Amino acid sequence: SLGTDAYLTANASQTPVILFVGEPAECRYSVNNERFENMQTGCTTQSTPNGQGTYECHFGDSTTNAGPMIEGFALGPGDTGYAFFKCQDLSGNANKESFTLTLHGTKELAISSIQPTGEIFTSLNQQNITLKVTTAQGADLNGNAVCRYTDQEALQNNQAAMVQFLNTNGSIHTQPLTLAAGAHTYYVLCADKAGN
């Protein structure tokens, strides 16, 4: 479900994973590349294939036959760790080679500045401004993120309901706005590829 690389949220020591397998199987993982028999108990695939014709094996969720969260690592910002997976089919044939998931430690994403702030006075009925946000740290340790905004207080923590900035996906994010006379409050939420 994560590809071959996963960026963990800051300070995370565990993560859920979904494996997609070509036939019904039992899958296990370890933080060491070892034999299937020596790996921690894992999950059993679902009994029917999904829409893509593969069988899902879930680690760390509440589906039937799910295994535990993938854990056993403590990664600081910029650190790399590995989780190794092997599966065994119903006939007892186990993978010889592990599927390796590379895990990356991250730092909390920070909004280092938002402009403009305070009050803007104008005699115009409408005012063009640019909402500018600067982010730092995060998954890539350089502030790379996607920012969204809303003027509705009830939506300030609902990223899916917010509007994505016109210029984003970096460390400087800008959104031109045309504001009518009156008071305006905007709420900003930024997230990196790790979900920080």
What does the model show?
This protein is mostly beta strands and 196 residues long. It has no helices and 15 strands. The strands form 5 sheets. Strands 1-9-8-4-5 form a 5-stranded mixed beta sheet, with no helix packed on it. Strands 10-11-14 form a 3-stranded antiparallel beta sheet, with no helix packed on it. A 3-stranded antiparallel beta sheet has the order 13-12-15, with no helix packed on it. The two termini are 19 Å apart. The mean pLDDT is 91.
Rg over CA atoms, rounded to whole Å, is: 22 Å
Gap between N and C termini? 19 Å
> Regarding quaternary structure, how should these chains be classified?
single chain
Strand order of the largest sheet: 1-9-8-4-5
- Class based on secondary structure composition and strand pairing: mainly beta
Number of helices: 0
Biggest β-sheet description: 5 strands, mixed
Q: What is the 3D shape?
A: elongated
Strand composition percent:
35-45%
The portion of residues assigned to helices is: under 10%
Mean pLDDT value: 91
Which regions have little confidence, pLDDT < 50, spanning 5+ residues?
A: none
Order of helices and strands: EEEEEEEEEEEEEEE
Q: How many strand elements?
A: 15
